[in-house]
Structures
1.
Amino acid sequence: MEPDKQLDAIRERIDAIDSRLLELISERARCAQEVAEVKLAASQSSDAPPTFYRPEREAQVLRSIQERNPGPLASDYVASIFREIMSSCLALEKPLSVAYLGPEGTYSQAAALKHFGQSAIPVGQSSIHKVFRQVESRECDYGVVPVENSTEGMVGQTLDSFLETPLQITGEIELPVVHHLLGAANTQVDSVKLVLGHEQALAQCRQWLDSHLPDVPRETLASNGAAALRAAGETGVAAIAGDLAAQLHQLTPLANAIQDSSSNTTRFLVLGRERVPPSGHDKTSLLVSARNRPGALLGLLRPFEENGISLTRIDSRPSKTEKWTYVFYIECEGHLADDIMIDVMSQIEEHSIMLKRLGSYPRAPI
C-alpha cells in the first residue's frame, strides 16, 4: 500500500478512537454529576456538608492507572492525563479554589495545577502565612505551600506556620524545578543589565550566573513570578523562572535549564481542613517538642525504630517560646489510623511536652 493511503487509513483509525474517547469521557463526566447529586441529597438529610474532593480516592485511582498502564506512553504521562480528566469532572461537582504563594507564574502555582489540575481555581497570595489564613478562614478550599527543596533544604516559614494552625496536611507534590533565564522579546543575553529571582532560585543558578553573567547585578525578590512580571516590563532585565512564568508573561528564554543541579526538586504540601482516610500508601507529619534533658531526642525516635517505621524527614525549628528550645518536624511512612501508629503516638507522648499531629496523606502519586 502506498504511504499516503497507509497514513489515511491510520488517521481514520485515530478519528474513530478519538470519537470513542470523547464518548467515554462524557460518560465519566455524567457519572460525576450523578455523584454530586447523591452527595447533595445525603448532606441535606444529615445536615453535614458534602465532601466532593477525596484525596485518598484520587491517589488510589492514579496509582492504579500507573500500575495497569500497558504503554507505550510513560506511566507519569498517562496519570497526568487522567488527573486532568478527574479535575474537569470534579469541577462539575464543585470547582476547588486553591491558595498558593503568588503572584502568577510561581512554582507554587505550577505545583497547585499539577496536583489539582487545570480546572481548579488558583488564588495567589503574597506570603506563606496568608496561604494558611485563606484556608483557615474558608476563603479557599485548599492551599499549597513549599516545604522542602532538594538543594536548599527546608522552608522555615512553612514549618513555623504549622505551630499555630488547625489545618491538616492532605497531600504532597513533588515538582522538578527547571530554571530558565527569561527576558522580554528581542532581549539578548549580552544586553542583560540586571538579573531578578527568588533567593533560592538565584542560589540554585549561581554557577551558571557566575560563568555567563559574572558582572551583572542580581536582585532578590519575593518570588520568581514577581521577577518575571518585572522582566516583562523593564528593558535589560532578566528573570529566573520556569515555563509557567514564561507562558503567562510572554517572556523569551535567553538560556534554558540553568540550574546547577539537574535533579533539583521542590516538595510542596497541600493544606486542608479535614483529615484524610488511608489510601494504602501514606505518610504522616508531626510536630514534637521534647523535654530538655539528655537523650530526649533519642526517646522520641526510638518508638519508630522499635516498630519498624521508616522516617522520611526530621528537622528542627526554634520553639519561639523559650530560647534554646526546639520543635522537631518529623515525617514518617504510615497513617495515623494504623494500629501500629496509634501505639507509636502513645509512646511519643510519654517523651514529649507537645505532640501535634499535622496529618496523614497519600504519598505523591505523580
2.
Amino acid sequence: MKNLDQRNQIIEYSLKLNSTNLSPLRSGNISLRGIEDDTEGYLITPSGKKYETLKPEDIVFMGLNEEEKNDSTNKPSSEWRFHRDIYKNKKEAQAIVHAHSPHATAVSSHGKSVPPFHYMIALAGGDNIKCAEYATFGTEELSKNVIKALENRSACLMSNHGQVAFGKNLEDAFELAQEIENICHQYTIALKLGQPKIISFEEMKKVLDKAKNYKKG
C-alpha cells in the first residue's frame, strides 16, 4: 500500500486526539503532506469514521489541485478544503491537526483573538492567537477565513468551532495543538479573576525572537 508509514502515523495521532481529550469522539481531523503517483497532495482522515476503527486503507489521498476526493472508497474529512489551502499557502506546513478541544472551542465562541496574557502565545508565531471568522464547516469561505487568521502564524482559533495547528511533522503539529489548548485553558481561568495583565508589544517582540529557538534547547 502506498504511503503506509504515513497512513499509520495519521491513525496513531488520530487515536491520540481521543486519548488526550484534545478532540473527543469523531471530531477533528489530521493530515500529512505527501506524494502519490507523482501527484503532490496530502493524506487526510476520512469523514465520519471513529478513530478506533481506522485502517490504513481508510486514509484518503487528495491532490493539491483536487476539488473533490480522488478514487478512494472513503470520503475525505469535510474540512479537506482548509487542509489543502494551508498546504498550498504554507510551504513549511508538513502536517495539520484540527481539533475541537474544549477550552480552545470555548474561547473561540467569543470570536476574539487571545491577547498576550502569557508569553507562550508566541509558540503560535505571533503576539496573539488570532480567531478566524465564523463560516459553515467545510466551506471555501471558512478556508479563506482560516488562511487569513494564519497569516504569520502556525496556529489559530476558528470561531465557534475549535482550533487548527500545523508543523514540520505530526508530532510538532500535535504538540502545538496541545499548547494552544493549554493556553486557552489558562486564559479562561484568568478571565474568571478579571481582565489579565497584557504583556507589552515590545516585550513580545523579545519573546518571539527567543521562541524561534524554544524547541532547540
3.
Amino acid sequence: MVIHMTKESLIQNLTMPWKWWFFLLSKLPVAWFAGLRLASFEADLAVVRLPYSWFSKNPFRSIYFAAQSAAAELSTGLLCLYALTEQAPMSMLVVKMRADFYKKADKPLLFQCEMGKVAQAAVEEALATGEGVEFELVSEGRLPDGTLAAKFWFTWSIKRKKGNPGH
C-alpha cells in the first residue's frame, strides 16, 4: 500500500514532536542523537535547532563542524522534501557542500533556510524536462543573539526515479 502525503500533512506531521523524533530516529539517526529539533517549518522556510551538548561539541568547547553540517543540511533538505511532496517519485541527493565559519559556536545554533521557492522551481523544471536538475540552497547558522556563526551552501540534485513516467 502506498500512502500519498500532502504538503500540509507533511508539515503537520513533522511539527508534532513525537513524529519528528520518530522521523529522525528512523531516517536520520545521527540527527536524532545530536538532538536536532525543528524550530519552524513552512513552504519557504525551515529552521533547525542544534543544541550545544555533549554529543554535538568538540574538544575545543564549540559545536563540531559535522553536527553543524547535519543541521544545515536538514534545513535545506526539508524544503526539498516539501517541494517533492505530491509529485511523481523523485530522488534527491547532495552533490556538493561548502561552508564558511564566522564565529565560535559555543551556544545552541538555529540553522535557517528560506529558499523553498528555489527548491519548488527545481522540481517543476525536473518534471517538465524529464532531466535531472542541480540547484543550490543556503542555510545560515546563528547564535541565540542573532550573530552569524556559519553559512552552508548545499548543491542538491533531483531527478525522476526510473520507471515512473508521470504523476
4.
Amino acid sequence: MKRILGISILLIAVYLATWLMSDLLTGRNVFMSSGNHENLLRRTGLYGIIAVGVAFVIITGGIDLSIGSVICLVGVGFPWFAVVQGYSVWIVLPVTIVVILLIGLFHGLLITGLKLQPFIVTLCGLLMYRGITRGFTHDQTAGLGDELQWLKWLANGEIPITSEFGIPIPFLILFVIAILAAILLNRTVFGRHLLALGNNEDAARYSGINTNKVIVSAYVISAMLAGFGGLLFVLDSNSGQPNDFGNFYELFAIAAAVLGGCSLRGGSGTILGVVIGAALIQLLRNMITLVDEIPQNIEFAIIGAVILTGAVGDVVAKHVVTRRKRA
C-alpha cells in the first residue's frame, strides 16, 4: 500500500511539473488540452495492457523479454495475412490466438521442463519472433488501409464525456483487464499460489502447489496480453514495419510493473500499482516531448533510470524488512 501511495504522489508531482514547464511558463495550452489528455489515456491503456501481462511473470520471479517481438509478430502478421494476402479475418484471428497461446506454452514449458532461465528463453523469443516476422513479410510494411474499420474502433474509438473530451476505448479495455487481473491475483487460489511461488518456489512446491503449472500459466497470460496489445497497437497506428514495430515495448511494460511494486525477486505486486506505473511512464514520455528544455533523445536513458531506481528500491526495501525482523 505504501508503494502505491508513493508512486501516486510521484505521478501527481510529474503531472504538475509537466503542466508548469509546458504550459504555465510558456503561455501555451498544449499539455492541458483535451487532445493531449485523450492521447495520454490511450497510450496508458495500450502499454498498461502489456504491463499487466508481464506483471504475472515478474511475480513468479521470472522475466519476459519477448513482449515487443510478440507485438511485432501479431501487429504486422495480422494485417499481412488479413489484408495483404487476403485471408478472411475470421480465419486469421483465431489462428493468431492459437499462435500466441502456443508461444506462452513454449516459454513456460522450456522454463519448467528443461529448467532454462527465463532470461535466456524470452531473449531467444525476442530474436526469433521478430526474425520470423521479417522473414514471411520480406521486411515489407503491412497496413490495414481502409479495411477492417469495425476493428479499428477498438483502438481509435472513445466514449464521449463532454463535447471536447472522451475516454479512449483502450483505456476502458485496460480498466476491465485490470479488474479481472486483480481478482485473479487477489481473490483466487491461482493468485495465492502465484504469490507463494514468487516468495519461495521450493516451499511452494513442498506445500503441494503445482509450481510448473502456475509458471506456465503466467507466461501464457503474458503472451496473450502481449498479442492482444500487438493487435491494438497496429489498429492504432494502422500499419507496422517488421524491423521496428514493438521495439523496446517490453522495457516500458517491465518499467511500469517494477514502478508499480512488482519485485524483480518475485512474490509481490499489485495490479493497481502496475496501472499507475504505466500511466507514470507515459506521462514521463509526454513530458519529454512537450518540455523544450528536455532533449527528446534521452527518453531511453530516463526509462533505464526508472527501472534501475525500482530495482534499487526493491533491494533497499528487502534490507529494511530483514533488519526489522531481526530487531
